[in-house]
Amino acid sequence: MTATIEKRSPEESIALKSLPGRLRELAAARSDDIALREKEFGIWQETTYGEFWLDVQAAAMGLWQLGVRPGDKVAIQSENRKAWVIADLATQAIQAVSVGLYATNPTAEVAYLLEHSESKVLIAEDQEQVDKALAVESLPDLEKIVYVEPRGVRSYTDPRLMSWNAFMAAGRAAMADEPHRVNGLVDTIDSNETATLVYTSGTTGPPKGAMLSHRNLSWVTESAQDLIGAGGLPNGQPQLLSYLPLCHVFGRLYDVCGALAMGSCVNFAESIETVVADLAEIQPTYFPAPPRIWEKMHALVNIRMADASFTKRALYKVFLKAGMKNADRLLATGSRGFVGEIVHAVGYVLVFRSLQRKLGMQRCQQAVSGAAPIAPEVIRFFQAIGIPLYEAWGMTETTALGTSNLPGSARLGTIGKAVNEEVEIRLDDDGEILIRSPGIFQGYFKNPEATAETIDVDGWMHTGDIAEKDDGFFRIIDRKKDIIITAGGKNVSPSEIENKLKVSPFIKEAMVIGDRRKYLTALIGIELDTVSNWAQRKGITFTTYRDLSEKPEVIELIQKQVDAANEHFARVETVKKFALIPKELDHEEGELTATQKLKRKVLVDRFSEIIEQMYR
Fold it and tell me: Which of 92, 190, 243, 465 falls between 20 and 30 A from 612, CA-CA?
């Protein structure tokens, strides 16, 4: 059965009350279409929409048998996989609340999140995640731990443990006894009740649990069809690659809400390490990614072309230059023009087709960068090689949607316009973005003070992002709390400088410092793949990341990148000194959030001696 994009009238869209309800619709209308694909022993295993809904009902009844009732919390700690979305939708189906935990969360964070959320059941992927929960001395609310992968856990004797297979079998048996229980609960979902808790990154303190309602998720699902499909509807069923953490709203936007909106097939990456290979195999129709992924791809292209033959390098240089001009026209007008299309067609055959295929972007009809600011040069690069990359903006608290650039309505260096007429955006007196929409969250769980600080009495949410507006397009300047005020009283946006530095394929991380200081400095982390490739071609030997970072030639290389970035800024905004971080930053060591954002305070404390040396 061939999938088509199911268009719904506005009246039908309004009727959507929950994600489980939408899945039930798809199961009835497209029972034989493939909904999920997951590899087992290297072979893709397929689940149809009909089977997907049956699995969700079985898991829902499994949870019901464990005593989960409306309003109870069910935590999920796993990499992206079929069991994740089944558990998520099953929890929502019985009017309980799903709570996503990152698989990379260390034990201390797991303890905080499980205790704070009052989770009654934990769905744990494997022994590693089970061990984290069992290491916590006191979790009075946690009654059951369901593990998906049995390896290493079978011999455990904790009475709270239960295998996924036994859990699903119990659910199917309960379905046979009460075949209408789940449908009845789905029918009576109150769209204003909380569907899921999404914990924020915690860059400045403990993570806060943002409460998203069924109405929030339904609105995003309704909006996603028009937003994701703006690049054109595909022939056949849209293909998605699920790799962004599903406990983050950016991943849920595409892999759950977007997939259910468009009846897509979601292909789960085998692991974060196999994403590049999975991309090349799947060639997804739509692809969302944070700037870090696009910067990494940009660096990989630079490595590939540095190692290419003279002829390939020459062709790449010529057509990339032409492609950049095409990108400017495309972003400005939505069209390359007649001559531009001919030039692009020739460049596609000779250069770009191979690059797109190896990056996994040959069939991509819309690529999105979100979750953090991205340098305009990176957007131009991907547009130049024929990948339709656009920048968008949203937050956990807006259920991922806020603004977006779209084909025919884009401006480089901005986050675009409001995604639809239901989203109201204005700038406060100090330039802070205020937003009001059906996607605005209900508040922070057990934190009314933070909720009151974030949502005012008129329903406007204070985002903490400072921006400028021009002809409806918004340009983010920086996070309000991150603005640097120099000793001379000059306001400086560190993220703008950091993004310019990270345009270099040799720079992975950059953190600009200078608050109350006489001049700006930067902590810089090298991009190991590209710098090591460069060093090998130069005949420079090294052993470790730290050894490579300390090489005089590498320091000189990065100095050139800093000098190039400085040319784009006024004197007061230039980086006067920099220091290379002697290690790769790590989430488990508290230096990065689970979404790979820098924890500035932690880094300032951890590398205080290095920082002070730059000011001596």
Answer: 465
The rounded distance, in Å, linking the Cα atoms of 157 and 149 is: 16
Phi, psi (rounded to 5 degrees) for 280: -60, -35
Q: Across residues 157-163, what is the average pLDDT?
A: 96
Secondary structure percentages of the chain, helix, strand, coil, to 5 = 45, 20, 35
Cα–Cα distance for residue pair 293/63, rounded to 1 Å: 36
Q: What is the 3-state secondary structure (H, E, C) of 156-170?
A: CCCCCEEEHHHHHHH
| Domain spans, the chain | 10-272, 275-438+460-480, 483-614
Cβ-contact 199, 182 below 8 angstroms? no
Strands 265-268 and 34-40: parallel
Percent of the chain with pLDDT strictly greater than 90: 77
pLDDT value of residue 226: 73
Q: Which two tokens stand for residue 392?
A: 């968008």
Residue 556 forms beta bridges with which residues? none
pLDDT at residue 15 above 60? no
Per residue in 451-499, pLDDT (tens digit) is 999 999 999 999 999 999 998 999 998 888 888 988 888 889 898 899 9
Where would I find the H helices in 307-403?
Answer: 310-333, 338-347, 353-359, 376-384
What CATH number was assigned to the domain covering residues 483-614? Answer: 3.30.300.30
